[in-house]
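During the no-cost extension, the postdoctoral fellow (Dr. R.K.) reprocessed legacy sequence entries with the updated structure-token encoder. One reprocessed record is reproduced below for audit purposes.
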Amino acid sequence: MSPAFRGERKRFAFAWGDGTLYFRAPGPKPREGGVEVRRESRKHMLQRYNKERQRNLLARPGAHDFVLVLDNLKPGFNVPKIFRSAEAFGAREVHLVNIGPFDPAPAKGSFRKVPARFHDDFRPCQDSLRSEGYDLFVLDPGCPDVLGAFELPEKSAFVLGNEEFGFSFEPTDYPCLRRLSIPQFGRVQSLNVSIAASIVMYEYLRQRGTGP
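Re-encoded structure tokens follow.
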């Protein structure tokens, strides 16, 4: 990790998969040959996480009936960023499947405002949502059914998997799941999971006349 920072700039943060944060040290110009960094211990990150998780117990459901299911995502920047977007779009709640502690700082306070439901694996999450009348959609880039081509149900649950490893479960083992893709026209055919979450939430609201 050796990006070149020049002059006096704001502090930048980087997060690795183990939850450790690295910061560019504020103050004088970095010494020649590298960037001065300060390591913030995992212990401090866990303290922040536990504090915000306790506050999350008081969170009220969002304005809309859709929910997000984050399955097996790395507990880095994506999870708190998704909470930030979920709060902005009025998600009812966010379900986290097999996701460990993460630094809530990138959520900008949203982790305490959007109800979080935690599950060790996908099946109890799926059973709970189905019992509440939800239709579940898994975002799959290779699926022919594209977002925007049909009306999304009022009670929609959007399941997003790990960008590298996919889902922690086999979608074909759950006949109730409907596959859904976001249309893309570039050569890479890949979207960051937090961006994908924002797109599907926007489309849900657009169909209900709450977006442009």
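Helices lie at 42-56, 78-89, 122-131, 193-207. The chain has a mean pLDDT of 83. The remaining legacy entries will be reprocessed before the final report is submitted.
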